[in-house]
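Good morning C.,

I know you're traveling, so I'll keep this short. The sequence:
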Amino acid sequence: MSRTVLDHPFPDPPDAGTPQEVHPGIHWLRMPLPFALDHINLWLLADDESWTVVDTGVDDGATRATWETVLAGKRLSRLICTHFHPDHMGLAGWLAERHGVPLAATLGEWSFGRMLTLETGEDYAANQVEHYRRAGFGPELLEGVRGRVGSYRLRVAPLPTSISTLKDGGSLSIDGRRWRVVVGRGHAPEHACLWCEEAGVLIAGDQILPRISPIVGVWPQQPDDDPLGDFLASLDRLKVLPADTLVLPSHGLPFRGLHARADELIRHHEQRLDLLRSTAAPATALELSRTLFRRELDPQQMGFAVGETLSHVNHLVALGEWRRDIRDDGVWLFGPVQGQA
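The tokens, ready to paste straight into the viewer:
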């Protein structure tokens, strides 16, 4: 698939920890991440004599130190997190307590993140392992799953015990501008984007990215979900916004070309569905993942790959094209319904 050419009005990202203005009163702050995806874009919105911060980075010493420098001598008036993932909500609790401000987030994102930071029960670990066993993991891969149980809270400071709730269609007034909350789904339960019509700016989080598709996966807590259906519907919703919107994503460069990029992502996932349709089935999720992911993957990446594969096969099930059966050992088998092959 040929790539859509987007307009990148700011082709050079700012140095880590050095805010760069991308629109009057809107500043781009880039932080490093200790992952293969090695950065996150955060956003500072001027709010009278203070700042509104959108997303936080992970909880580690380097990120805390950078925030101390960036906010030295400045007042933080509001803290917003787009979704619960560690690179977005990792320091929400620390910043909220340090600056005496509430966390603003959707109920779905805060409650999911709060659950993961507090979840230590053996039943939680057992459910994680059983989910991947049903997906086709053998003993070696399952041992890796056990070793990663609880890893979320290693990157996230304790989250606040209450929030200021963001709701789809609601609005915030920041420095006299109205920002409307646009909730997207698929990548996260209730991902909050922020749209300012006056500025023509969308703070998009991970809901739409310029070069990669965000992970759209099925996870152990919701094994029967159709997050891909939710994600595709959310992309269509974003296309209601003007095509020349300045999109501020959490990874990569700010861009214009919202409609074209949304269409490109829709085609990308349609092509992956077609790949599965052409695959010999019935098969396990692990076996089917090798159709979508041809490169060598480490055990953690394999977990993400199987989550993505499950989102696509669950979507085919939701469309009525495929069915999910269960082998005698409890492992799921996916394949076309009779007459659909």
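Safe travels,
E.
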